[in-house]
Amino acid sequence: MSQDGDDARTLLSAAAEQAVELAVLGGRHGRRQFIQSVGAATAGAALASVFPMAAARALAQDRPGPLEKRDLKIGFIPITCATPIIMAEPMGFYKKQGLSAQVLKASSWAMIRDISINGETDATHMLSPMPLAISLGVGSQSVPYVMPALENVNGQAITLHVKHKGVKSAAEMKGFKFGVPFDYSMHNFLLRYVLAEAGVDPDRDVQIRAVPPPEMVANLRAGNLDGYLAPDPFNQRAVFEEVGFIYMLSKDIWPGHPCCAFAAKREFAEKMPNTFKAILFAILDATQYARDRSHRKEIAAAIAPRNFLNQPVEVLEQVLTGVFPDGLGTTRNVPDRIDFDPFPYQSMAIWILTQMKRWGYLKADVNYRKIAEEVFLAAGCREAMRALGQKAPDSSVVKHSFALGKTRVFDPDRAEDYLKSFAISRT
Amino acid sequence: MRRDRLRVIAVSALLGLAALVVWQAFAGGQPAGRGVPGPLAVAATAGHMLANPFYNNGPNDKGIGLQLAASLARLGVGWTVASVVAIMGGVALGLSPTLYRAVNPYVQVLKPVSPLAWMPLFLYTIKDSSQSAILVIFMSSLWPTLANTAFGVATIRRDYLNVAAILQLSWWRRLVTVILPAAAPAIVAGLRISIGSAWVAIVAAEMLIGGTGIGYFVWNEWNNLALTSVIFAILAIGLIGVLLDAGLSRLSRRLAYTE
Questions:
Q1: CB B129 to CB A111 under 8 A?
Q2: In CATH, A154-255 is 2.40.50.150
Q3: Is B123 within 8 Å of A118 when comparing Cβ atoms?
Q4: The overall pTM is greater than 0.90
Q5: Which of A409, B25, B127, B259 has its CA 20 to 30 A from that of A247?
Q6: Interface predicted TM-score of the whole assembly (ipTM), two decimals
Q7: Where exactly does CATH 3.40.190.10 map onto chain A?
Q8: Per the CB < 8 Å rule, is A107 touching B208?
């Protein structure tokens, strides 16, 4: 899609939304009264059922007003994907936006989901498929979520137990027991993709289990797992502990694939637009800082302590700088092993939805594009990035290229055809 | 009598020492950082942690003292509430054979359920992880006290109840001056089992919910494969368990009576 078309559509939808608001609710004042009288959740649901009132609108104001809430709790899982969310606390990025934010470590993705839905955290680190799944009520109660920024791209790997050092292709992995962090994760979808492309049916020929990331190395050591597609530092930690080797980096499956994200309930974004915007600014700022490779060692030291990742600094440096031993005796230098790029392309969401469909997590027919637009707040992220003086892509929907597989290009406009092109699929 | 005691202490100390030596020999045979850490490494970690047990570096990094205190606070609330409910329920069941037989099948179905199995349901309905953990403690300490109280009350000598009836004591006085004291040894035995199983459950519950607590501490150290800390935490958990049990054992000795 061209830039002009996209911009025009944004303008048009903004104008339409304002008109809707004025007509239905009697302007901003009326909206507030409406929300107060029926409760925000009901109001949100009522409005969303009639018009797609995205929380992106809250992000569109030029100057954020006063913060509705200063003391915030932000949930995270101790993995390097969460680097911007975590480092923003010790390195002062939240404080810079006037926020007093505490990051809270959770033990599993199910826990991250539940404490976020329960409101014990205000905003949270999530796997990028999670806000889509939760908004759709797949594997969860249905709660509308928004995801205004990715945390990282790349940065995952397939790690195998040292006893499988001879394995050269995914076709040799029949009978393996694999761990992934959560059903609704890029890890699950990428692992299934790799296996299926090699003719291994991920539901019949192997076992894939959800294992919380911090428990993966212990499970690999115990021989409970033959391997995993997991977030770092747990791939590198397996090498460090001499129990595993890095079989394949995730960037060699889909270069620039999304992974973790920053998300919040739509209710939070709509009730506290200024706070929501301030957190987003803090995270975009931190992401930009993390993007600069010369800062990576400093960041590794900031997030290593027990309060955050609780990992050896050495391992985190190997992950973040991309200079690392792979467990097979070679030291590799892959600068983009992990990268931090916040822009949540809606086409990424569409790919995720096709895979949810492909593997039977999503049974109903859904409008990929509409859901992607409601959850992945690309326009909001773009405006916030530009307000911070960062470069942001003009288009929210692009084609994605894969490094592996039969169909190398994913065209979001032809998602159904893409889905039908797979030989192994549960649809 | 005294000589016996001395002999027991000597044998016990020797066994402990032998275990430590075997452990150290087994652990020392492996290169540093690999395999199971030995007692010396654990002692070093223990010294380090006990030097400053109450430090607070934010929500995810607190001293071992604060972690244990958080777990004990959860235990205290969950176990106390469960005990009150279980004693009241147990008295009712013990006094009425009909009620006992009517309720028993349900209790038998619920009793073998691991308290942790309730966790997802609690999280979904209560919508608060900390309260859910307390409810897990509640569930784990409910059944032993309930069963023991019902048994204790049901087996009170009829004479006591008959005397109370003749004296025309009020319902409340009969409960406080006759039934509860008479059933007290059985009730306290139930409370002892309860607090033990609650302390066992809390570690697992805290590993699930995160936050502060000794269970979460174990999980957090496990995720860094810091086994010395894990072993130290295991010892601390065991020691606290002994202290809890000893406290109730004292109470039970004070409440014991001979007929």
A1: yes
A2: no
A3: yes
A4: no
A5: A409
A6: 0.71
A7: 154-255
A8: yes
